[in-house]
Amino acid sequence: MTATLVTGIGQLVTNDPGAGRAPPLGIVEGAAVVVEDGRVAWVGAAAHAPGADRRLELEGRAVVPGFVDSHTHLVFAGDRAAEFEARCGGGTYDGGGVASTVAATRAATDSGLLALLASRVAELRAQGTTTVEIKSGYGLGVAEEARLLRLARAWTSETTYLGAHVVPAGVAREEYVRLAYGEMLAACAGYARWADVFCEPASPHAFNGDEARAVLVAARAAGLGLRVHANQLSAGPGVRLAVELGAASADHCTHLSGADVDALAGTGGSTVATLLPGAEFCTRSPFADARRLLDAGVVVALATDCNPGTCYTSSMPFVIALAVRELGMTPAEALWAATAGGAQALRREDIGRLAVGAAADMAVIDGPSYVHLAYRPGAQISRALDLAAAAAA
């Protein structure tokens, strides 16, 4: 087994509270990490690092756990730049634009979609993301949704069935809901780890609480974990439905009542509030109040919501900067939410932290501190550390 010593780390964020200062970040200054077989074998001060077969010198750069992007819609063709331009002129978002992406995606070949996926995943990694969740939702038919999940599985184990994204035009609502929790779910369950529903009574295209419940209960019975698009456009039943059914994450959480916040806090972190400030930025909508959630004891994650309609960004550093500027989060809280928080939203303990036994997923920052992620918004200063490429260089 070959060991690699990653050293010369000016500041290492471990997300292991016992490893260093400033819990929960567990910061180690002048640090090193030893990696064996893709796992962390040792973490600590570089001066005390054990020997290794290979050595990678980072020359004082900061290192953080690789970003965990726990909410994306990466399998699609086409774009919706015209829709974005219309919103910039005063238009609003209600979910109706999904239909144009469905048409373009259905028309694309498998090889074409895989090439697009490869490009987008590479773009994420170039900015420091090492784990990504990918949803379906742009097929809206039995074979089409199964195809998207099958293609997504080529890139991640964190795949999510989102047949209940919107009700497609020309299909009766009741008929489509039955399809989403029946034949379509059966065809897709083998390719998915999770199921999600766009629960949004304010949208004529999305699903109300009863419809969302039917899909989620069936998905849970099929062995899938649950996630919910909740309370994005207005107050509604999504957050409390997520809590009631034991969903791993309630995503968006933009319009929350006091009861919603209390419900999330009462789960003790088993249902994470995943905030998606890029969507609010791109749709000119009110931002979620992360400060309110954190002060109530809710576990918060951050993710990109990368999709062609409401947030076509793959940049977790941009999301971190938005969270600090607009959501009331500190740089430390935003980094934790983008790493350990995302891992908790995926119910993973092997990612989002750098401790012995965890995946050796690291992001390198071209700066001395993790604070530069928020301090230098828009700058390309972070990337996933590719140990194989470094060894071959």
Walk me through what this model shows:
- The relative contact order is 0.16.
- The longest helix is centred in the first third of the chain and has 16 residues, at 110-125.
- The strands form 3 sheets. Strands 1, 2, 3, 4, 5, 15 and 16 form a 7-stranded mixed sheet that branches.
- Helices cover 35% and strands 21% of the residues.
- Helix 12 packs across helix 13.
- The chain folds into 2 domains: 3-66 and 352-392, Urease, subunit C, domain 1; 68-345, Metal-dependent hydrolases (TIM Barrel, Alpha-Beta Barrel).
- The mean pLDDT is 96.
- It has helices spanning 81-88, 98-107, 110-125, 142-152, 173-181, 183-188, 209-221, 238-244, 258-266, 277-283, 290-295, 316-326, 331-345, 372-375, 387-392, and strands at residues 3-13, 27-36, 39-45, 54-57, 62-65, 67-69, 129-132, 134-135, 159-164, 194-199, 225-230, 249-252, 272-275, 300-302, 362-365, 382-384.
- By secondary structure, it is of the alpha/beta class.
- The protein is globular and about 65 Å long.
- Helix 7 (209-221) links the parallel strand 10 (194-199) and strand 11.
- The chain is built from 15 helices and 16 strands.
